[in-house]
Amino acid sequence: TDQAHIRNFCIIAHIDHGKSTLADRLLEFTGTVSKRELLEQTLDQMELEREKGITIKAQAVRMKYTAQDGQEYELNLIDTPGHVDFAYEVSRSLAACEGALLVIDATQGVEAQTLANLYLALEADLTIIPVINKIDLPSADPEKVKQEVEDVIGLPKEECILASAKEGIGTVDILEAVVKQIPPPAGDPAGPLRALVFDSHYDAYKGVIAYVRVVDGVLHAEEKVVMMATGSATEVLEAGFFHPRLVSSGELTTGEVGYIATGFKNVKDCRVGDTVTVPGALGKAQPLPGYQPAKSMVFAGLYPVASEDYPELRDALERLKLNDAALYYEPETSQALGFGFRCGFLGLLHMEIIQERLEREYNLDILATAPSVAYLVTKTDGEVIEVDNPSEMPSAGEVEKIEEPFMDISIFTPSRYIGTIMDLVTTRRGIYVDLKYIESERVLLTYKMPLAELIVDFYDQLKSRTQGYASLDYNFAGYEASDLIKLDILVNGVAVDALSLIVHRDKAYYQGRALVEKLRGLIPRQLFEVPIQAAIGSRVIARETVKAMRKDVLAKCYGGDITRKRKLLEKQKEGKKRMKMVGSVEIPQEAFMAVLSLG
Ligand code: GTP
């Protein structure tokens, strides 16, 4: 297609504002897919995505649209991940576009990710088309949302397109706006090849499939190419586009979006953000801006419940890693849990997804330790080390300074919740930055807060304290020194490495006490008495005791009711599933996560 008739765009939105539904409507209207095919959910392919209702992997679909000017256009819709953990992937997807539909729910208005995504789109210099969706709902208030678009986003309210993705209202207006307002791709068709990789996935038959946007030149099948950042070279096995399934077309011209089958066996050879070029252009063509390796922010130990499953866990992680360059892992040994892996994730959602896939797709029973952040520790001898496992924190005497990652966080909320949110953030060591009124009853609060406090149940707390009304977004702000110490937990007199944690000195006593209390409730009674202690260095600061089991526990509650007895036994069996023998004491999975609910 000639460049003037190409439009590359994406849809950005806060979660649940209707991004996928609108994408479906566009695909259906342009005849790209039929209604029946849509039922099979074309854009969100992974089962997990569907269940969690979120989009994880960016994808691209090509549509043909004959506009009201009588001309036929090639529209490439690039799907973007909807969750803040994947902000880097979002920004790469945006870099492949010239425009964005900014979808806003007419019943909700502007939310945290509406703005976060908007900022990313503005950074990428995209033309923004505001779409107010769900106008079919009785509680929709399009006029109010229009005003928000003008006040908060800074676009004239007349530019808003009113739509219902569900009912198909506004579809034509949206497609016309895409054609008229979004500029065609610039780029030099005669220049040396440069194509941006904005996503990739591993396919068992074709090797790594890279999703690319050709910026300059033409990309041909059967051509030798090189990845500028990684230096990996290969021959393009196939080139084409998504319609929505792969259609091999032999080439991708300047400005086009599509895929290449690379033959690479691992996505790390073909990272998101890298530039594809031909060997002859190396040294002449500049790499496209923006390549940066994904950075793990959250770390946890993953251990097989049954130690003989260790090789299977290793294989499963290796397989997942093939398709997920952001997943990091290395072998780790815990005195308490045996052999396992230290894993690094983009954020909590990423961690949850990996855990679920290990369990569901690989049938593994795994035990996860509480998530931790990576600390920068300056030792008294001047050496600086990164510590992402609390049990590996050097003893207090060896530590000069500990720095921890801080996040800039923004919270959108009805103003009636300001008090409770301030309260929550303050107990999490948050530092107030700003409060801005979006309209008379809604505010944008900004804070700086340690990531370690954010990953401990913060989002759930925020949601429950605001009846689900508040929305949250966060970005890495940098490392800062904090007064942190290591808290050890001793079970039956033995320190359990997988239970140690790093806490702020001011909160150590409170957290130590709360944690042993919680553990007392979680660790089942044994045949002997089990003391649980929290200690800082050699100083015990809290103690609880799990009383010894009475041997007649079953006989006692039996009382003639057979079903009750069976229930009790079944319950015990269930509880057994995620238990780990630590020394002579059984510790359940929940115990390792107890720290998450301390607040
Ligand atoms: P993520 O993929 O999680 O980011 O969500 P999304 O933005 O893609 O939202 P999705 O399209 O899944 O829509 C969220 C919910 O809103 C679904 O239950 C849709 O059926 C519903 N929905 C979307 N558009 C409309 C609309 O125009 N009207 C009404 N009434 N409901 C809609």
Write the layout of secondary structure elements.
Blueprint: E1 6-13, H1 19-29, H2 35-39, H3 47-52, E2 60-66, E3 72-78, H4 87-95, E4 99-105, H5 112-123, E5 127-133, H6 142-153, E6 161-162, H7 171-181, E7 194-203, E8 207-216, E9 219-220, E10 224-227, E11 233-235, E12 238-242, E13 246-248, E14 251-252, E15 257-261, E16 275-277, E17 298-304, H8 310-322, E18 328-334, E19 338-345, H9 348-360, E20 366-368, E21 375-379, E22 384-387, E23 399-414, H10 418-427, E24 431-439, E25 442-450, H11 451-454, H12 458-465, E26 471-481, E27 484-491, E28 494-495, E29 501-504, H13 508-522, E30 530-536, E31 539-546, H14 553-558, H15 562-577, E32 579-582, E33 585-588, H16 589-593
Parallel strand pairs: 1-3, 1-4, 4-5, 5-6
Antiparallel strand pairs: 2-3, 7-8, 7-16, 8-15, 9-14, 10-11, 10-16, 12-13, 12-15, 17-19, 17-20, 18-19, 21-22, 21-23, 23-25, 23-26, 24-25, 27-28, 27-29, 27-30, 30-31, 32-33
Bound molecules: guanosine-5'-triphosphate.
Residues 13, 15-21, 53-55, 82, 133-134, 136-137, 164-166 line the site of guanosine-5'-triphosphate.
- Mean pLDDT over the residues: 86
- Overall morphology: globular
Low-pLDDT segments? 52-58, 556-560
β content, as a range? 25-35%
Helical proportion, percent range? 25-40%
Instruction: Give the beta-strand count.
Output: 33
**Class based on secondary structure composition and strand pairing:** alpha+beta
Give the helix tally: 16
Give the terminus-to-terminus CA distance: 56 Å
Bound molecules: guanosine-5'-triphosphate
- Main beta-sheet strand count, sense and barrel state: 8 strands, antiparallel
Rg over alpha carbons: 27 Å
Q: Strands of the biggest beta sheet: in what spatial order?
A: 11-10-16-7-8-15-12-13
Subcellular location: Cell membrane
Binding site for GTP: 16-21, 133-136
Catalytic activity: GTP + H2O = GDP + phosphate + H(+)
Domain Tr-type G: 4-186
